[in-house]
Amino acid sequence: KDPKVIAKLVTEGRYSAPYTPDGVYADLRIMVANRKRLIREMTQIKNRFARWFAIYFPEYTDVFGDYEAQSSMLLLKKVCTPEAIVELGAEKINQIWRDAKLRAVGMKRATTLCETAKRSIGLKKGSSAAQYEMKLLLEDYEYKKAQLDAVMEEIEKLCRKIPESEQMLAIKGIGVITVAGFLAEVGDVRRFESPRQIQKLAGLSLRENSSGKHKGQTTISKRGRSKLRAVLFNAAIPLIAKNPEFKSLHEYYTTRANNPLKKKQSVIAISCKLIRVFYAILAKGVTYDAQKLISDIHRQPQVA
What pLDDT was estimated at residue 163? Predict the structure, then answer.
């Protein structure tokens, strides 16, 4: 916009001041952003692990389904290349696990690993540099994991400062990440007059793309805080899978006789329902009631 248009909007009062959270909500927003950054950095490190195994020991994940397992990480600190594993031998590998008092692995796994290492098609050149690269990867992984654990601990402490968060966590399928993400993006919900305003803030309000005689499709506006929309969408999917009442709602929305919703549309409807539940808990201090949640399911009358 040019300066004259901006000046006109300001003089007419056609603007809104941005909301900046305060207190525990400001702390939550910062810590949730830090967690997201650390998750992204952890993903980059895991991709580097995948690249290393693809080059030097592709068969390693056949022996260890999860290379992040404690037994695997303990071994990688000692030896990682196929040549070094064969040279160490099954008995010494098993002894490493015994010294650490690990019960999930033993001589059978150690023997399988050595046999797999003998027939590995991994790159043999530059093995010493490959071992050093693995050492750097493990250091980066442990450092970032420790940071992520510390951030999660701080997020949990901040959530406990908001008494109503306990009621939110009491909902089956809702975890600390969802609660913290919602509070970080919305702030104090008591500043809203109704949950519809939060729905609009998340960009989940409906709009119709119509003009003249043309009637377009009704979609969500997507105008608002995209991070809040992502938190709600990611929370709705496990709710549908794990929570009986939200699962019943999803089945009703997708199978009702009048205007059945598609699965993705139902997830959006569940997200909006979750906003209303969170608003009632945070703004009015009510206790979560599963029966009240599904009371608006209008089942069709049985035909005799």
Answer: 92
